Amino acid sequence: MRRGKLMHNFSEDKETTRLNYKQLFRKLSPFLARRKGTLVWVTFLVLAAALSGRAIPFFIGYTIDNAIVKKDWDLLLYCTIGYAVLEVLNSVFEFLQVYQFQKLGNQVLLDIRSKILFVVQRIPMTYFNRTPAGRIVTRATNDVSQIGEIFSDGVVKVFIQLIVLISIVVSMMLISVKLTLICLATAPLFFYLGIKVTNKIKETLRVSKIATSALNSFIAESLNGMKIIQMYQLSRSKMDQFEFLSGDLKRVSLKSTRNYAMMMPILNLFNGLILASALYFSGILGQQDGIKVGLVITFFLHALDFVHPFRDIIEKYQQFQNSLTSAERVFTLLEEPIEAGYNLPPIPQKVGNAIEFRNLSFKYQDTTTTVLKNLSLTIKDRQSVGVVGRTGAGKSTLVHLLLNLYPPTPNELFIGGHAIESIPLNQLRHKINCVQQDLFLFKGTIFENLTLGSERILDDRVYRVAAEIGLVDYLAKTQRTLAHPVEESGANLSTGEKQLISFARILIFDPEIVILDEATSNIDSQMEQLLQTASKKLIQNRTSIVIAHRLSTIFSCDRILVIDNGRVIEDGSPQELAAKDSEFKKMLSDQSYKDL
Ligand SMILES: Nc1ncnc2c1ncn2[C@@H]1O[C@H](COP(=O)(O)OP(=O)(O)OP(=O)(O)O)[C@@H](O)[C@H]1O
Ligand SMILES: [Mg+2]
Q: How far is the CA of 369 from the centre of ligand 1 (A)?
């Protein structure tokens, strides 16, 4: 196998954007529609800020011509006060405009993030198998923030500055169309130059985003896999990969800085040209056309304001393009088909608890090996079934199918007489609870991990159940309580402890069907005792499947299935199987179980 296999595949990140502005707005519009009020308010503020901004030069011109030139000192005082009021108004509008846009942006981002979470919780497991977690993290963080820039920086700036620019040109034309045309004669040339440079910037930015994304995914994955990295002492090779990726980022960042640096001189030159021609020609034409001196100054002030929005439009246009790439990725994720099971109509009558496999065969998507083969068996309501078998026999796959994490072929798996694909997922997962083999706990406290934040669970119940199965006493021995903190993914707890907590959680939630997929672990006899008592409680009066590596766990089950290579090879009560010359008996006498 190729050594670099552990390196990431960033092909998706390299894709260029296919979304155009229209499509982007179509996709954003449901999010914007929810914020109509803010949107109307924001539009008003943009117009108000542009108009008050243009009123200022006119007011100054008026003051010069009517108060200063005519030496009307009273009017000058009123005009000065009027001018101050205008400036304050303009500042207030601009402040509110920026604030409201940010607010709108944040509201939309919040909605998009919630939608991402909603979707991610409902897309089929197969998506997570083929998508690195780091990439999903990048979607939900970096890419969503980029969409935010549409509101704070990108398209919104373009939109605002376009309105400002139009208001400036109209104001200049109101004074003199001829003068305006002369002054802005070079604008198309500079616009062309500006766009050329920003196109270069865009390209380097795109490359730098790929480099950033690669680095982010790399860091996220390295953090997740830190245990393995340290254990196998991969630090050196990881460092090399890191240096390679960050070197890449440095190179492209420098290139884009260089391009940015070119932008300023071009625009400064343009600014100089406009102002010089405004100064010179407004002087001459002012004389010829009889424009008063105050109005000449007004014109000059408008011209002075021209370059700023002009530059912003050229610059932010590219940023907007950038946001498009992110938007496309986010919307691709949002449009991932969610599991069909969430949209099924609820089954009105109570679904029974018997489980039936009808000649079920199963293989994982994109694989060729059939993991379960022609499995036919019925588990009665409230029957407890222990499942044993060698590693890779297909035991955990049974769990995946029963929780509908992976869909079986239709009409091969039934719960309470209903084909599993017809049971809405929330109904199914309410009914069946499971302790998975890879025990996972959330960062928080033990208590929070027991309730999972569910409001229907009363505190009393949590304490009672935790005490009943000995969790409280067990923790007390090491001066811990249910309020003890749990590190990310339960890193500060032993496997046995995690298992006991997971058992307690199921007892608290009290589902009708339980599945225990035991983690292989060597646990001491005290923990063994606790877990055994807990699992006895768990299977009492419930349909249950207990997948066990430690056979002691399943002796209290009504029935045992031995699975080998995807088939049931033995099926009977523990006593029956232990009595005859069975695979189960062999397992019992096997070296690893001798101590039982
Ligand atoms: N998500 C998956 N995608 C593809 N193949 C898988 C997947 N999960 C498991 N398999 C394959 O299916 C087979 C059965 O795996 P399964 O996890 O059901 O075994 P198991 O009996 O639970 O083993 P263990 O005792 O080690 O937990 C294995 O060959 C495994 O490689
Ligand atoms: Mg397993």
A: 11
